[in-house]
Amino acid sequence: MISFEPITADTMYIVSEIINSNEAYNVLENGKKERSEEELFKEYMNEKTDSYFIKADDTYVGVIDYMKQNPNDDYPWIGAFIIHSAYHNFSFGTQAYLAFEDKLKEERVSVLRLGVLSQNPRAKLFWERLDFTQYATKPLHHNQVNCLEKSCKKIRGLYPRIFYCTLNGQKKESIVITLLLSEPYAPVEDNVSLLFGAT
Fold first, then answer.
1. 169-188, pLDDT tens digit by residue?
2. Cα separation, 147 vs 167, whole angstroms
């Protein structure tokens, strides 16, 4: 089960482990394999954003940084969404986003924005398969950022499907719950990270 736990000063060492497990992305974004504790503290322990651990049961699998109202455009933004490299390709990214979207719907968020480095096409594909669409490309420091947005009003639901099989001569019934998205999608690698400032 996916849950979210607020990041605190005492748990910043876990943030550092998660972020620095993604060396390739760190190089893409910052030009170096590791980020310092000081850098991460400024990013995840500030008053402008809400920062959470993504947990799968009791395991810390990622981090998410969220700004309720970006002063550049007055929209809510996801600024960082990073899964520990050890947990890529287990669909934790997809599960975490859908759970976080449900949380935002309870808070009556209708539109959500985020930015993806143009040099990170797998991340863009991940978000497009979750119904985000690109509305602009903007410069950010030494990078170009694709700005994406999504209406959080699209309907999702759980639909049971019943399958039958024969085991030791007896007919068995299994119920599989299917999560219906507005469009079919296939899982992609959960190695995605985002930026706030491209508005």
1. 555 544 443 344 433 333 44
2. 51
Q: Do residues 164 and 128 make contact, with C-beta atoms less than 8 angstroms apart?
A: no
Contact 57, 1 (CB under 8 A): yes
Question: With b meaning 16 or more CB within 10 Å and e meaning fewer, what string describes 148-177?
Answer: bbbebeeeeeeeeeeeeeeeeeeeeeeeee
Q: Are the C-beta atoms of 192 and 82 separated by less than 8 Å?
A: yes
pLDDT of residue 168: 54
Handedness of CA 55, 152, 126, 63 (dihedral sign): negative
Task: State the amino acid at position 94 in one-letter form.
Answer: T
160 — phi, psi (to 5°)? -80, 140
d(CA 117, CA 98): 22
Q: How far apart are the first and last CA of the chain?
A: 34
d(CA 197, CA 77): 10
CA 195 to chain CA centroid, nearest Å? 12
What backbone phi and psi angles, to 5 degrees, belong to 152? Answer: -85, 10
E strand segments, the chain: 2-6, 50-56, 59-67, 77-83, 111-117, 133-140, 143-151, 157-167, 170-180
